[in-house]
Amino acid sequence: MKINGKRIVFKGVNRHEFSCDTGRAISKDDMITDIKLMKSHNINAVRTSHYPNQSAWYELCDEYGLYVIDETNLETHGTWGYGDGTLSDHNIPGSKPEWLDNVLDRCNSMFQRDKNHPSIVIWSLGNESFGGDNFIAMHDFLKQADPTRLVHYEGIFHCRESEAASDIESTMYTKPQDVEKYALSNPQKPFIICEYSHAMGNSCGGLHLYWEVFERYDILQGAFIWDWIDQAIRTTTPDGIEYLAYGGDFGETPHDGNFCGNGLIFADRSITPKLDEVKKCYQNVKFEGVQIAEGQIRITNRFLFTDLHTYLLKWEIHLEGEVSQSGTLHISLPPEEDIEVLIPFAPIESFEKEAILTISMVTTEDSKWATAGHEIAWEQFALTPYLPDLVSSVENDVTTSAQLDITELEEDILISAGDMSLKFSRITGDLSSYNSSGKECLLEPARPNFWRAVTDNDLGNKLSERCGVWKNAHEDRQLIRLDWKKEELLCSVTSHYTIATNPITSLTIDYQIHPDGTIHIHQQLNPGDDLPEIPEIGMLFVLDQSLDTIAWYGRGPHDNYWDRKTGARIGRYSGKVEDQFVPYLRPQECGNKTDVRFASLTEGTIGHGLRFEAPSLMELCALPWTPSELEASDHIYKLPPSDKTVLRINYKQMGVGGDDSWSARTHDEFILPCNRPYSFMFTMQPIKG
């Protein structure tokens, strides 16, 4: 498929006409909000799923510049089944002659009304209605009336006897490896995925995998995410609490629950972190390191008709998140070409701080959809490695006058030095108290954690059933030995556990306590053979709510996951713990941060608190609620009032997945299998306000 002789790649989204306040009757302002968000997040195409839209939408697509698949108002989902393969009497419209005039009228009405909109590049015959001669007739009608445009129909994938109904091979929710199989099968038609990366709740994991495949094969020409906006109604409870309602909230039956909550934006048109991932995967400028230490990079212009002289290249070097050098370059690069460019930064002479080069391309003038300075593409390159500072506590031990004391009680072990005291339970082996400068930090004993609040995708692929053994693994621990000893400059406490999985899992947590209150925590997990994947591996701390501000050096600023972090850049970020919560229709896992070097939780921005660091990259999540509290609430307004900060420090959390939301599991490269041991170390240190 070509536009003016250039191979097009559709970086698309499906869009229902919807407003949380007016339902299907959306305003032009709603449409302008949508189209500006699409353009500013590198979306270049929209499918009008599953009906012709208001005429004003096509006018805006003409004006702002979006490619459109215009779809006939036709869907008969319930008259056929996946795997049917051949036509039957149940299929509608199928080849039934009594339906021919009806379906031709529908596609003709669409064609006659919309034919003069240049934004429309493809006609679609409808959605999920299997096959039959009636679709071939629709195709032939459109091709005769308009030979300049292609005709699309995904149903031929399920009914090959209707192959002639579509000029394009189109599928739904095909996994990346199967997309590649098509490209290698000597295909005769260009390929798109008309629905993919089902954006239900915390989703769109693995989106980058699709675009790695699309980049390798010319026959693969893009895909359309399902879908643009959550479909939920803004309403109030009898007590006057405003919330976004979904299926069943009005007492109706049957309904589809929150299955309508699969948008890149929320129903009120605020954006989700998924949209940031889309923007990065869809960007039209590619940056690659050539001799990155010398500043040599390769830039590829993936635009079809735009020279990069339209934009400004900006570059910055950050030393552990702080800008140390910066500059700009003007580059002329024609469409579909590449060039090597030298970024003129001064040599990095010290390895004391991690140096990261960030390159971005920004607009130079205001446009209808963005102001000057809007970023359209970016990339980061490590110039020097991150070297964690894990020796400061030892240096402090040498200079401090405080001495560690151990007091053995019947049920506890008390460890103190100066204004710091800790308590370990001799019954559970848990760290049950951490008091610094007279302030108790822990509201509950710190504990190992192997569970996250299930996402919509987790529920769809039955993770809670398959991996349920890990949900209460912390409660199923049995302390088999507790060791403690005092050495010259530190105390060590080691808790040895078995976990009642089948077969048995063993767990050891070692705490090295220094006089200044620093604790080096080492968690060693040996899962039983043949157990299911582990949702996450780490420690959970229920902390005083006064520790309400989180700061971290890692990926951000929005939440990100092992399989959805392409669009989150490495930097220093901070914010209120309550603001890390992402308001999906149904409360679920959210707020995670990956590739974290160090982090802190403090009272405000300068108060006392705790600092966390690891010898290797870690993950963390700070929210006002525990995973079990999130799981127990089916709406945000039902979450209990919080009097705490819940911090999870993790080796890793499995990815969120998103190939679909009803069966697809997280890709194997983003899970924590039980065929290996896991070792995780991190340091917790008091911050004096």
TrEMBL record:
Single GO term (MF): beta-galactosidase activity
Pfam families, A to Z: Bgal_small_N, Glyco_hydro_2_C, LacZ_4
Domain Beta galactosidase small chain/ residue range list: 414-685
Record field: catalytic activity: Hydrolysis of terminal non-reducing beta-D-galactose residues in beta-D-galactosides
EC number: 3.2.1.23
Gene3D superfamilies (alphabetical): 2.70.98.10, Glycosidases, Immunoglobulins
Any Gene Ontology CC annotation: beta-galactosidase complex
One of the protein's GO biological processes: lactose catabolic process
Database matches in SUPFAM superfamilies: (Trans)glycosidases, beta-Galactosidase/glucuronidase domain, Galactose mutarotase-like
Entry-linked SMART domains: Bgal_small_N (SM01038)
PROSITE patterns named in the record: GLYCOSYL_HYDROL_F2_1, GLYCOSYL_HYDROL_F2_2
Highest rank taxon of the organism: Bacteria
Record keywords: Glycosidase, Hydrolase
Name of the protein described by the UniProt record: Beta-galactosidase
Lineage per the UniProt record: Bacteria, Bacillati, Bacillota, Bacilli, Bacillales
